[in-house]
Amino acid sequence: MTATEAVAGGEDELQRHFDATIDHDQRVEPRDWMPDGYRGTLVRQIAQHAHSEIIGMQPEANWITRAPSLRRKAILLAKVQDEAGHGLYLYSATETLGVDRTDLTDKLVEGRQKYSSIFNYPTLNFADIGVIGWLVDGAAIVNQVPLCRCSYGPYARAMIRVCKEESFHQRQGYELLLTMMSGTDEQRRMVQDATDRWWWPSLMMFGPPDGDSPNTRQSMAWGIKRHTNDELRQKFVDMTVPQAETLGVTLPDPGLAWNSERGHHDFGEPDWDEFKRVLHGNGPCNAQRVERRRAAREDGQWVRDAAAAYAAKQADRERGAAV
Amino acid sequence: MDNAYEALVESEGDTRWAFGTGFDDPLAGVDATVPAGVDGPDLGAYCLMLGDDALILSHRLSEWCTRAHELEDEVALANISLDLLGQTRMLLARAGQADGSGRDEDRLAYFRDEEHFRNVRLCELPGGDFGRTIARLLVFASWRLAAFNRLGESRDPVLAAIAAKAVKELTYHRDYAARWLVRLGDGTDHSHQRAREGLEAVWPLVDELFEPHDVERRMVGAGVGVDPASLREEFDAVLGQVLEPAGLATPETPAMGRVGGRAGRDGVHTEHLGYLLAEMQGLARAHPEATW
């Protein structure tokens, strides 16, 4: 049955058609009917993801002017530029759901929409750039690879491209850490210090424990989400432990140990109170991150006004010429 | 592969690095021989001049990162900064080869003091608002494109190849700045005023671009370099083509003075460069034994 045939059958038919699409693991496309809850959940999730890309530029951009070699500077600048590009595709994906990018930016700077709380931590030494690539992009990839199979077509397609680029970034970050670990004692100390600071926030990137994640069940039923928070967190830990060993750093969790019975690593519980504090705006950099975004929007208003005024004059001139 | 993460510890396939960043030596595999009859130290100094111009302006443009008015321009400004950084790396690498010192790009970028930087002072001027950024970029890209078009014929084949690649990039930079200056000049009254102020702020540094240094004169004689004075006519014509539709007049602000006849090409800079270098070089200099 096509969507047009479904329309003839009213709301129930539309719902049945939508459910069948989800059940058969097919893609929902922008012009298809979809329940309001599905649309709202997607807008919230994709906007949050887009905001995370844009806010996430800040902790890394913090080191562009100070990068200690021209090659590292080029890698970092290219990476931050890629993140702006990811933000652009993701905002475009939200526009296919009938929202406007400007409104989403308003919501971000007014604190009405969230972004990944990891970006509310500061980057304090250059190894942070490597650790963000290794752990933060690594966790993002674990979260995002299943989204390449998300039921909403434009989001799934955007995620394929985003994941490819994220995997470059992650390798670049890890390569920086390998280089630093083979450098001076002070460089090794920087890598360990950065790992100590980013490990727990990285585990928090998968969201609250399953028992405390109210939206997971519905998102999984809709094919938006494919694995629970705890499943993804476990996968990340299992992958990261051998990489930490190769690198020669210690992950700051005394409870971390291989459990042969489960076939997985056991690990400690992140400080969920800290997670909530950061989520509610009280992390070390929340105010600074949002303020930067707000300032960019306000300081640039005159430029956007100029572009709009110029476009209107050009359109008038073209109409005048056509007469 | 279900998970891109698994690629992490693979030791091969490094061709997948992000574009333009996957090399340690920007001139790897290039024949470094200095052409017969060309003075190596002069060629080195000449490449430093061109490389330092790109390095310092790249730094200023990278300061925009996360501050632009629109994501599309965030990407564009980062892209231009990255192009100039790529030009820097090749030119500094060539400088270290040609002058016989064997200094690599990082030695030159991070371990020279202010007085050894050879960039024109235009590049180090603080970025200011978008109006000034665009005015400076238009001036810089128009001037550099005119020079690099001619450097494609340089007797130094390395410099000629670097210039040929850079011409494509600079053409885009000039176009980007020109389009924006017209939009700002012919946008709102407020944007017109900002564009005018931006142009007035950079204009005192324009004459310096066309005043040849002794190294440049000698490189012209050797068939390697370009006489900057010969670029003025083309530059004025290009600026005229942009300022006219922007409704902006050529500023009449006088040229910034020199210090005992010396300016950027002689290593005599504005007060701004010291701060820029302190920020850029601080980490590298704090760990001179480190590898990054």
Written overview of the protein:
The complex is a heterodimer of chains A (323) and B (292). With 323 residues, chain A is mostly helical. Chain A has one domain: Ferritin, core subunit, four-helix bundle (Ferritin), CATH 1.20.1260.10. Helix content of chain A is 68%, strand content 2%. Chain A contains 14 helices and two strands. Chain A has helices at residues 3-8, 10-23, 36-55, 57-61, 70-95, 101-109, 127-144, 153-181, 185-204, 216-221, 229-247, 272-282, 286-299, 301-322, and strands spanning 257-259, 264-266. In chain A, strand 1 (257-259) and strand 2 (264-266) form a beta hairpin. The radius of gyration of chain A is 22 Å and the shape is globular. Chain B has a single domain, classed as Ferritin, core subunit, four-helix bundle (Ferritin). In chain B, helix 4 packs antiparallel against helix 5. Chain B is mostly helical. Chain B has helices at residues 40-62, 71-98, 105-110, 130-151, 157-185, 189-202, 214-221, 232-246, 272-286. Chain B has nine helices and no strands. Chains A and B meet through helix 4, helix 5, helix 7, helix 8 and helix 11 of A and helix 2, helix 3, helix 5, helix 6 and helix 9 of B.
Query: Termini of chain B, distance in Å?
Result: 31 Å
SS class of chain B: mainly alpha
- Unreliable spans of chain B: 1-21
- Multimerization state: heterodimer
CATH topology of chain B: Ferritin
Query: How many DSSP E strands of chain A?
Result: 2
> Could you estimate the helical fraction of the residues of chain B in percent?
40-55%
CATH topology of chain A: Ferritin
Please tell me what the overall shape of chain A is.
Answer: globular
Indicate the structural class of chain A: mainly alpha
Percent of residues in beta strands of chain A:
under 5%
User: What amount of the residues of chain B lies in strands?
Assistant: under 5%
